[in-house]
Amino acid sequence: MAMDNADIKVHSIDYRAKAPESFAEKAGTQSEENPNRPKYEKPLEDITDLAGVRVITYFLSTEDRVDPIIEAEFEIVERTDKSELLEQEERLGYHSIHYLVKLRPNRYALPEYARFSGLFAEVQVRTILQHAWAEIEHDIQYKAVSTLPKEIRRRFMTLAGMLEIADREFQALENEDTRLREEARQSVAAGRLAEVEITPDALKSYLDKKLGPDGRMTDFSYRWQARLLRQLGFTDLRQVDAALSGYDDDELSRIVYFGRQGQLTRLDTVLLAAMGEEFIRRHPFTRSDLDWWPNAESRRLDRLREGGVEIGDFRPEAHPSDQDQEQS
To answer: Cα–Cα distance between 66 and 63 in angstroms, integer?
Structure first.
């Protein structure tokens, strides 16, 4: 709930109680300083990951956003950056943040939480790629660099480097996508439509301004509509705006559907009026097995004509984008 309230999107949040056999195996671990002694003198007190939560993020930046959520919800007993620890111990591994947490006093003062007073849990935060490495490493159990054959050690180190680069590249792509989305929104707001490529986010910004916002539309709907516009031959929002020019989307909607329809239906209705038969010919439904669709759309076109609407012959290619002009 706290993650949702902060609008933080993650791949998954998993939780588990440590299995008895796993606890027994860990409790029997020998001390690295003295193999004749156990690593955990008092297993029930010293082993603190009896309960655990794992937050798997898409991007490195999300880890930084999760951190204050954990700080706000729990009392942090310990915070460990595993990448730093692995470097110190000369072990193969990958970046991951581990927290040892317990409930805050105001939580376990409540009756429903009182039984958890004094108990600890572990919270791990890592990206999908970090998680993949950790799971494979745990399965293969190749951890100590000194025990690996030279060839295997070299390949492991190369793979670890590739995963780190991939994580950084995914983050860079996410940053660039965010920047381009913001630039597109600013261009739409300023009316610089020739600069704006047709993407779902840019299309939504344009249509909210042009036809009025419609909270019923989903992200999938805008992805579908952006793909449709490209299939119809549009490459930027200036061409879309030129096609819509001179038509009243509300009026056309009432002629065809006898009432005001949703934002994207009104857009298609205006495009049908602007492009005429060409809209039907280029539409992917015409080339599919939906035999009924072209006939139904032709009847809508007839309704527009009967309603006194002048049907156009708009062709996006007759209004080349700046990119098209540069290529020519």
So the answer is: 5
Of 203, 287, 303, nearest to 244 (Cα)?
203
CA distance 247 to 17: 62
Contact 47, 88 (CB under 8 A): no
Q: What is the pLDDT of residues 76-86, one digit of tens each?
A: 999 988 766 55
Two tokens at 287? 């080339």
**How many C-beta atoms surround the C-beta of residue 131 within 10 A?**
20
Q: Confirm if 75 and 101 have CB atoms less than 8 A apart.
A: yes
CATH 3.30.460 domain locations along the chain = 2-147
The SS3 call for residue 203 is helix
Q: pLDDT tens, 216-247?
A: 999 999 999 999 999 999 999 999 999 999 99
Q: Rounded CA gap, 260 and 252, in Å?
A: 9
320 pLDDT tier (thresholds 50, 70, 90): confident
β-strand pairing of 51-57 with 121-127: parallel
- Which residues, in sequence order, are bridge partners of residue 98? 80, 124
CA-nearest of 305, 241, 250 to 273 is 305
| In the predicted structure, residue 137 carries a pLDDT above the cut 80 | no
**Tokens standing for residue 157:** 């180190």
Residue 303 sits at φ, ψ, to 5 deg, of -60, -40
Summarised one tens digit per residue, pLDDT across range 293-306 is 999 999 999 999 99
Domain 2-147 falls in which CATH fold?
Beta Polymerase; domain 2 (3.30.460)
With 0-12 / 13-18 / 19 or more C-beta atoms within 10 angstroms meaning exposed / middle / buried, residue 238 is buried
